[in-house]
Amino acid sequence: MIIHVVKQGETLNSIASLYQVSVERLLLDNGLETGSSLVVGQAIVVLIPNVVHVVGAGETIQSIAENYGISEINLLQNNPNLINNNVLFEGEILAISFEGEKLRGARLNGYAYPFINQSILRTALAYMTTLTIFGYGFTATGELIPIDDEPLIRQAYSLQASPMMLISSIDESGNFSNEHAEKLFGDPVATETLITNIINTMYIKGYIGLDIDFEFIRDKENYITFISKVTNRLHQEGFIVNVDLAPKTSATQVGLIYQAHDYKRIGEIADTVLLMTYEWGYTFGPPMAVAPLDQVRRVVEYGVTEIDVNKIMLGIPNYGYDWKLPFVRGESEAIIVGNTEAVDIAARYNALIEFDPIAMSPYFYYTDELGIQHVVWFEDARSIEAKLGLVNEYNLLGAGYWNLMRRFPANWAVLNSLYTINKLV
């Protein structure tokens, strides 16, 4: 894999000629449209096929995959245009493999809400080990608050991604409430009811495990007891458990978001954990990268001292933020943007994309039609490569994307270049 940074005067045609790949391949791997304007500083993923296949009459995805001794999913990963439209045309050129060796196998998870665009979902699922559907809440008595998850579960299995159920502190009003969760932890009857309902739902709907996502919890002991109870019961039924953890850098880190997330104790109980290594840059905070690599690394370095590396999933953000300037604390509010959308904004305003070598993240400034200056921090192929590199550097189990709701084709190209995606089904 090559990541090419666009220079003044370059076009897709000139970049394709430079690396002797087709323009169509660049368009596909970077999610670009024919005639797309490139932005100076934009990262372009270049995957160079070393084995290609020209589709013959009557051939299918299955027959081509079998002919080359690869899985159908692998063929789709290498040719993502087939994921949502698997009709083959005689003479079509498919990539069977690319130059360069993959680092190793890894487990990948992605989070999605039930209202996700189906095309975006299906594309992502080809690269996922598991799909975690957000998310179930519960009543004061332990009854589940249902969600429309069955269409996503069906889609997940169709692309060999295993669905994970998620439970969080959502109350009957649809709001997140740590008080609501803490009342549950202190009520053994409601807790038992909830666990039974979770197990029944998992059997009925085909979930393989549970993701526990409780944040800003004050009562650490009762929370850890709850995790232990849930995990013991689910293990008896053959299910797995993942727990989401705030991004800590020490056991004594101060703050409500951190205090109940005991890395060592929770890491011993759960099958896997997700380190939520994002939101340094956030809606109400000052402009900065969402997941600066130097800060992410600090969390990982602490995490591996407390938790078995074979249990750790590294959190990766699939979004950025657009801030109006100047930033005024208590007043300013950033707007969330997709990573592909961010590049579109840069193109619209003829911005120059820059790259922070410490945060390993791209950003740019622009001035809108009202004369207001903005700064946008987002993710691109370079920042994703750097984050995914930590998975191999620290020998982690894999990574988890928060979230899959927005298009980011270049991300899948980078991921597919670096890792073989381990599937559970």
Concise description?
GO terms for molecular function: chitin binding; hydrolase activity, acting on glycosyl bonds; oligosaccharide binding. The protein is α/β, with parallel strands linked by helices.
Alpha carbon gap, first and last residue:
28 Å
Q: How many strand elements?
A: 19
CATH superfamily of the largest domain: Glycosidases
Structural class: alpha/beta
Query: In the CATH classification, which architecture of the largest domain applies?
Result: Alpha-Beta Barrel
CATH topology of the largest domain: TIM Barrel
At the first level of CATH, the class of the largest domain is Alpha Beta
Biggest sheet descriptor: 8 strands, parallel, barrel
Uncertain spans: none
Binned strand content: 15-25%
Rg value: 22 Å
In DSSP terms (H or I, runs of 4 or more residues), the helix count works out at 15
Count of spatially separate domains: 2
Give the helix level as a range of percent.
Answer: 25-40%
Cα shape: globular
Give the strand line-up of the largest sheet: 5-6-8-9-10-11-12-18
Q: Mean pLDDT across all residues, rounded? A: 97
What are the SSEs and their pairings?
Blueprint: E1 2-5, H1 12-19, H2 23-30, E2 43-46, E3 49-54, H3 61-68, H4 72-78, E4 93-98, E5 104-112, H5 118-125, E6 130-138, E7 144-145, H6 150-158, E8 162-168, H7 178-185, H8 188-205, E9 209-213, H9 220-236, E10 240-245, H10 256-259, H11 263-269, E11 272-275, H12 293-306, E12 312-317, E13 320-324, E14 335-337, H13 339-348, E15 354-356, E16 361-367, E17 373-377, H14 381-393, E18 398-402, H15 409-418, E19 419-421
Parallel strand pairs: 5-6, 5-18, 5-19, 6-8, 8-9, 9-10, 10-11, 11-12, 12-18
Antiparallel strand pairs: 1-2, 3-4, 6-7, 13-14, 13-17, 15-16, 16-17
Helix pairs in contact: 3-4, 12-14, 14-15
Domain GH18: 106-425
Keywords: Glycosidase, Hydrolase
GO cellular component, one term: endomembrane system
